[in-house]
Specification:
The chain has helices at residues 13-20, 37-55, 61-68, 83-108. It has 112 residues and is mainly α. It has a domain at 33-108.
């Protein structure tokens, strides 16, 4: 877990930080179906990403599946023998998807 957004060392960390400053402190982005569609997806992805690393998908498993298109069957069983393996696979798979979401939102917002 060296180069992740969780530890503030993601591939596009600077862009992600700039995008986070554009999203509201609570609630959805304005014009979420129009000019801020990808920014809204970034907001949702950020919430799901946080839940993955902080709560093992205890709160947003179904939303995680909707945003990232895989996983999210429920909270990882913390002490199960398969826990570490499943968590590792999920976290490795989610990082490049976050990269794509960040780039799309940054282009939409005119940051890049």
């Amino acid at each position: 877990m060296q180069n992740t957004y969780w530890n503030k060392k993601g591939k596009y960390q600077e862009l992600a930080d700039r995008l986070f400053r554009l999203i509201p402190h609570s609630g959805e982005c304005e014009d979420k179906r129009g000019s801020n569609r990808r920014l809204e997806k970034f907001r949702k992805a950020g919430n799901c990403y946080y839940d993955l690393y902080n709560n093992l998908l205890g709160n947003r498993a179904a939303e995680f599946r909707a945003v990232f298109g895989f996983g999210g069957r429920g909270r990882f069983a913390y002490r199960s023998s398969e826990y570490r393996h499943q968590f590792k696979l999920t976290s490795e798979r989610v990082e490049p998807l976050m990269d794509e979401i960040i780039l799309a939102a940054a282009k939409e917002q005119g940051i890049i």
